[in-house]
Design brief:
- The chain is an alpha+beta fold.
- The chain has one domain: START domain (Alpha-D-Glucose-1,6-Bisphosphate, Chain A, domain 4, 2-Layer Sandwich).
- Helix content is about 25%, strand content about 45%.
- The protein is built from 4 helices and 7 strands; from the N terminus they run βααββββββαα.
- The protein has a 7-stranded antiparallel sheet with strand order 1-7-6-5-4-3-2.
- A hairpin with a 3-residue loop joins strand 4 and strand 5.
- The longest helix has 16 residues.
């Protein structure tokens, strides 16, 4: 099965270190991740191997995402893999210094396990990476601007 992938970039007027610190702090995820209503840190120290449960609420449903941190390279990259319900879905963040600001790139990768899963993912797409990224950038700007 061919992976479905999307990459989006924008800038935030804050130093790379502050952006990385906010992105990787599970206690603050609900401040910037759209729809996140709560986070429970399940296991592991800060960094690779850490597991979180994210409670995501939308107008139509509530979902608990089980994720594991798979990329943790301060202060330039951070990423996780979803263990459930969309096992194998990955989100990566790359941070770059950009003249007093931070250039942030989010890449989402999803590899459907079956043809049926691919069809369901295309027809019943619940996550819109563009909408999530736009909301995330606006929230990061608001939090980091305080």
């Amino acid at each position: 099965m061919k992976p479905a992938s999307v990459s989006l970039s924008d800038s935030i007027g804050a130093p790379v270190e502050r952006v990385f610190e906010l992105l990787t702090d599970s206690a603050r995820l609900r401040e910037w991740y759209p729809g996140c209503d709560g986070v429970v840190r399940r296991q592991g120290g800060r960094g690779k191997g850490e597991r979180w449960t994210l409670r995501i609420k939308t107008t139509n449903r509530v979902a608990d995402l089980q994720i594991e941190v798979i990329d943790y390279t301060p202060p330039t990259s951070f990423g996780w893999i979803e263990l459930a319900p969309r096992a194998g879905s990955k989100i990566f963040f790359r941070l770059e210094f950009s003249g007093g600001a931070t250039r942030i790139t989010m890449k989402e990768i999803w590899i459907p396990k079956t043809l049926r899963g691919w069809v369901r993912g295309k027809l019943l797409r619940r996550r819109n990476a563009h909408r999530v990224f736009d909301g995330m950038i606006q929230n990061l700007r608001k939090v980091l601007g305080r």
